[in-house]
């Protein structure tokens, strides 16, 4: 059994990877991660230091959420970790369809995490 | 620090309580739980056996989600556990507004769990 992280190069995707590492330690298990974005995750190896981690390679033509759910359906995943955006100052944000679909369709529990306050609001924040 | 469970007498609310117990054990911490429904949770003491648990009493006139978020804001919570319904056979279900609000507004990670398949689709299933 392992922790499966829905990762990406965004601030949210990186927050998920960090929390996934903590979760794998708590559960004393391995970590799998799937990059659901189209950009490589810079520094993933450093983020994953200290856990036994493997990247799920996916068919780029397959819907990324279907790819994640296929891994879950294969039966070796005990929890999914996914990042979510913080609510905007105007409060208008609704939960992204990706997170919502995963929460609704995953047969295993889903841990939703947000980037630390001030960790950058968008894509590819440098540090 | 503790695990805070958003519980209720529904099948989902009881699933959250059960997963919360497992989560408190994994994190070697205490459990707090808040009944966001209007019906007592039958057999809560049995569900909570083996962890140090306390119930959050809330003002019945306060919005239950605000009550949960107030406890989180007080700073002693490391993860929220909340139940969600399974997608209906017709696939029409969207994530309940309670779960969505908690995921969007909680400053701490939220673990969303679903009842075991066949655990009853509604309220107050007997066993």
TrEMBL record, chains A, B:
What family does the entry list? Belongs to the universal stress protein A family.
| Natural source organism | Promicromonospora sukumoe
Q: What is the lineage of its organism?
A: Bacteria, Bacillati, Actinomycetota, Actinomycetes, Micrococcales
Q: Which InterPro entries match?
A: Rossmann-like_a/b/a_fold, Universal_stress_UspA, UspA
Protein name (record) = Nucleotide-binding universal stress UspA family protein
Pfam families per record: Usp
* Ranges of residues in domain UspA: 54-114
Give the highest taxon in the source lineage.
Bacteria
């Amino acid at each position: 059994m392992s922790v499966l992280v829905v990762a990406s190069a965004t601030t949210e995707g990186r927050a998920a990877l960090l929390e996934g590492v903590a979760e794998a330690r708590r559960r004393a298990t391995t970590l799998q991660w799937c990059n659901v974005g189209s950009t490589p995750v810079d520094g993933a190896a450093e983020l994953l230091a200290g856990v036994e981690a493997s990247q799920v390679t996916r068919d780029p033509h397959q819907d990324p959420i279907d790819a994640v759910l296929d891994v879950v359906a294969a039966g070796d995943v005990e929890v999914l970790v996914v990042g979510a955006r913080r609510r905007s100052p105007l409060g208008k944000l609704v939960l992204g369809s990706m997170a919502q679909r995963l929460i609704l369709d995953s047969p295993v529990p889903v841990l939703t995490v947000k980037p630390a306050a001030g960790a950058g609001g968008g894509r590819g924040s440098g540090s």
